Amino acid sequence: MAIDLNRQSHSQAHALAARELRRFSRRGAALIASVLTLLLLGAAGYATSEGVGFWYAFRWSLDTAATVGGFPQPHSTAGQVVQVALVLVGVGALFYALATVAELFAGGRLTEYLAARRSERVIRSLSGHHIICGFGRVGRQVARDLRAARAAYVVVDPNPENRARAEALEIPFIEGDATDDDVLGEAGIERARSIVVCADSDANNVFITLTARELRSDILIVARAAAEDTEKKLIRAGADRVISPYKSSGTEMARLALHRQLSGVVDVNVQYRLEEIEVGRRCGALGKTIEDIRGGTIILALRRGKTFEPQPAGATVLREGDVLIAIGSPQALARLEGQLEEPASERELRDGADR
To answer: Where are the domains of the chain?
Structure first.
């Protein structure tokens, strides 16, 4: 029931500005039709009472309704009655038209409608883009990283406050529930490269993943999971990759606490990991070559001061402060860390001297 209400809220919010503009158009059309009818009746009255031609009478009634005063005063009583009626109705119609236009602009509906139309045109022009479902803290970080990579993306979120945030950053935004087929279709899922599912609720993430996989069997789906048991559900729902921010950050914090020479960790998959490891002071690897210490790991790069050397030669001799970027199994990396770690006795002496 809650999901149905969310889906309805998107369609209602998205169509509200369009309905207001259509209502304004209908009111304007009715006003124009009423004024034209009044002018024709006034022309008929002038032509009959004043004995003039119909075209002259029509211009006379238009002049009277507009209160211009370019035509003479009618001589007959019937003509004067027509004149009074035209003036009253003409002034009333003018004020009604002004009130209608003021209401449209004061309500901001026209601006909202035009902004929505511009956003729709931008989204329809995208291809190979990414769809971010959820614009909370995780979603905003994903958007920042995609923007830094100059990748095109669209944000889908049901929260009106997030719309204001996205529009301030000029991000294409769709206010709606990503569990709705129509909303993902509006986001261009048939042309998208991937979909990042990072709503605040695990239940919503599972539903979004199911919907996206049903609409596109070949699209890459990266999903966020807060609870551990949700990871398996997201995989079964069709997610290609599942990220648990709390688990990942906690694991990395523990690794950094246990191995102070680590400066970064990335899990490639269950069997392999990518690490940045600093060569510690007076460690066992000082003076040795990369070939001597790498073991079962692959050294992808060496950072020495301000220089960065990809795929360093095996004969490169290690110095204190060097940073190795290595990939390997957790066991192989643990052995490499042991060789590059500063000896505990040396560290204790240094810490005691600092105190």
So the answer is: 2-110, 126-243, 247-354
Binned at pLDDT 50, 70 and 90, residue 161 comes out as confident
Taking Cα atoms as reference points, which of 175, 237, 176 lies closest to residue 203?
237
Quick one: tokens of 254? 């523990």
Residue 8 and residue 26: Cα distance in Å, rounded? 25
CATH architecture of 126-243: 3-Layer(aba) Sandwich (3.40)
Q: Are 271 and 329 in contact (CB under 8 A)?
A: yes
What is the DSSP code string of 35-48? HHHHHHHHHHHHHH
What does the alpha-carbon distance between residue 340 and residue 355 come to, in Å, rounded to a whole number?
Answer: 25
Q: Which amino acid is at 96?
A: Y
108 pLDDT more than 80: no
* Per-residue pLDDT tens over the stretch 218-265: 999 999 998 878 889 999 999 999 988 777 777 777 766 766 656 666
Measured CA to CA in angstroms, residue 154 lies from 4, 12, 23, 191, 195 at distances of 23, 20, 30, 12, 9
Written as six digits, the tokens of 72 are: 């003479």
Task: Give Cα 10 to chain centroid, integer Å.
Answer: 15
In whole angstroms, give the CA distance from residue 291 to residue 297: 10
Give 136: exposed, middle or buried? Use CB within 10 Å, 0-12, 13-18, 19+.
Answer: middle
Over 90: is that where the pLDDT of 289 sits?
Answer: yes
pLDDT band at 50 (very low <50, low <70, confident <90, very high): confident
Spatial contact of 130 and 192, defined as CB atoms under 8 Å apart: yes
Please state, in angstroms and rounded to a whole number, the distance separating the CA atoms of residues 249 and 325: 20
Top-level CATH class of 2-110?
mainly alpha
Spatial separation of the C-alpha atoms in residues 28 and 51, rounded to whole Å:
33
Calpha distance 37→23 (Å, rounded): 21
| CATH number assigned to the domain covering 247-354 | 3.30.70.1450
The residues near 107 (Cβ < 8 Å, ≥ 6 apart) are 20
